[in-house]
Amino acid sequence: MGRGKIEIKKIENTNSRQVTFSKRRAGLLKKAKELSILCDANVGVIIFSSTGKLYEFSSSSMEQILARYNKGPDSSELPSVEHVAEESQPEVNALRAEVEKLQRVYRRMMGKELEGLSFMELQYLEQQLNEGILSVKDKKEQVLLEQLEKSRLQEQKAMLENETLREQIEELQQSSIARKHSVSSSKTVCNCRSEREGISDTSLRLGFSSDVYHKRKAPKIEPDSMDFQSQMASL
């Protein structure tokens, strides 16, 4: 695990503050020494502890470093503006000439400042213009083809979307027809049942009840016992 970030503030504990001072002082002086060796620099470091003790490091004489610091930067070591201008003047002149040349070519491409050009130079300029026109036409055709291809893809996408919508509409219509057919069949069945029930009720109202039927049934005739005995005696 990495070390947590230490908050930079005064350490209140005296012992901890002294330990931290010793470690960081040693690290600072070590870095100053490495800087002077690696970069060939004159380095001077002065440290006073909280108790007033002095710690210092110098790559050369501390007095010389302090004297140089108090004196300020040596003007002889700084290049003058005139010297810089003289050194960069050839480069500046070359860049200026290149800019003027490009501007002149641009004006001639626009059909200006053609005076003084020979027949070969004019023919070369015409060839450059024709090549430029052909390049522009090719680029224009390429852009046009890209736009046509983009339009074709958009048209195909729109056709697919329309086909999908049409299929969805057909499915909705078929579903609606099926629901209507189901409702119509249910109504027909209900009407048939109602008609049968109506016929049954009518027949019941027209027929006799079971009690009346039994009451109106003809009585059964039984032979008289006396007549039967007399007939048997005569025989």
Description:
This protein is mostly helical and about 240 residues long. It has a domain at about 15-70: SRF-like (3-Layer(aba) Sandwich). The chain is about 70% helix and about 5% strand. The protein has helices at about 15-40, 60-70, 80-110, 120-205, 210-215, 225-235, and strands at about 45-50, 55-60. A two-stranded antiparallel ribbon has the order 1-2. A hairpin with a 5-residue loop joins strand 1 (about 45-50) and strand 2 (about 55-60). The longest helix has about 90 residues, at about 120-205. The chain is flat, with a radius of gyration of 61 Å. The model has no long low-confidence stretch (mean pLDDT about 80).
Question: Care to give the gist of this entry?
Answer:
The protein has helices at residues 14-39, 62-71, 81-109, 119-206, 210-215, 225-234; strands spanning 44-48, 54-58. The chain is mostly helical and 235 residues long. Strand 1 (44-48) and strand 2 form a beta hairpin.
Query: Element order, helices and strands?
Result: HEEHHHHH
Order the strands across the largest sheet as they lie in space.
1-2
Overall mean confidence score, pLDDT: 78
What general outline do the C-alpha atoms trace? flat
Radius of gyration: 61 Å
